[in-house]
Amino acid sequence: MNSAIEMMLNRYAIQNNTDRENAVKEILQEIALAGLSRGGFFDKAAFYGGTCLRIFHGLDRFSEDLDFALLEREPSFQLETFFPSLQKEFTSYGIDLDIEAKHKNTETNVQSAFLKGDTLTLLVSFFPASEDARKVFSGRKTKIKFEIDTDNPAGGKTEYAYRLLPSPYEIRIFDEPTLFSGKIHALLCREYAHRVKGRDYYDYLFYIGKGTGINLPYLENKLKDSEKLTEETRLDMDLLKRLLTDRFRTVDLASAKEDVLPFVPAGYRLELWKPEFFLSTVNSLHFS
After folding, report:
1. Backbone angles phi, psi at 166, to 5 degrees
2. Which of 61, 89, 200, 228 is most deeply packed, by most CB within 10 A?
3. CB–CB of 61/199 below 8 Å?
4. Average pLDDT of 30-53?
5. Is the pLDDT of residue 23 over 70?
6. What are the pLDDT digits (tens) for 195-217?
7. Distance, CA of 113 to CA of 195 (rounded, Å)
């Protein structure tokens, strides 16, 4: 096994096959970030979302996807341009993954792709002594989605961050108030086809617990882009509190808890997730 991957695995307290699978996915995510960095991706884009929060701000839940946004609107941007640098990075660690663009039937501002590999092959290469993995994961595929918003609104602030493993690299991420603003936008605007995305609510509470401020211009622009606010409306704290209060009073929290359960640490008290609990957080909000 590559020594860098071995050091990364030493971070984990592996108890079962779910822990093994999540560890593999998280390490693959970080290798992908290193490959994108070496390919010049972060000259054009910044990292955000739950995985960014986990890697760079200590979020204590598993996050599946890699989410990015262009620093400036660029309709001609093509995510496939960076596939060779991703492939080269994985190959350097002896990891066999396919990279496939997701082509959509309707035109959107979001471009998506998947990293795909044979789950059993990955598990055995990372955990060669795990015999039970051979029984559990035969025939399964590991998929990691990554996508980029090519039409992200103005107002987001970025900063540089650094990682030493799998090898040293530099990455551009949205700063914490911008990340929090993006999460509030998701709470207010995300449509729920089947199940409320409880991970949004978990991450919201994480920001509240850290006392993170809100990037007001960015959040206002995001809400206008989503037509949650009209162009003439100016966002202030009173309006934001009203919007969140309406959401917390009407959202199906039972569905949110069902969604987030596989991702949260053992012993997390999801029974506290009641409208009153979330409403109690609104007065903690402040602009950065």
Report:
1. -75, -20
2. 89
3. yes
4. 97
5. yes
6. 899 999 999 999 999 999 999 99
7. 23
Are 32 and 144 a contacting pair, CB within 8 Å? Answer: yes
Average the pLDDT over each of 137-141, 146-150, 221-225, 234-238 and give the range with the smallest value. 137-141
Q: What is the pLDDT of residues 52-64, one digit of tens each?
A: 999 999 999 999 9
Contact (Cβ atoms closer than 8 angstroms) between residue 222 and residue 179: no
Which domain does 129 fall in, by range?
A: 1-174
Residue that terminates a domain, selected from 140, 158, 174: 174
Number of domains comprising the chain: 2
Q: Look at residue 132 in the predicted model and tell me its pLDDT.
A: 67
pLDDT of the residue at 205: 98
Is the domain of 159 the same as that of 208?
no
Do residues 142 and 58 share a domain?
yes
Q: Could you say which of 118, 140, 174 is where a domain stops?
A: 174
**Which CATH number is 162's domain given?**
3.10.450.620
CA distance 90 to 125: 13
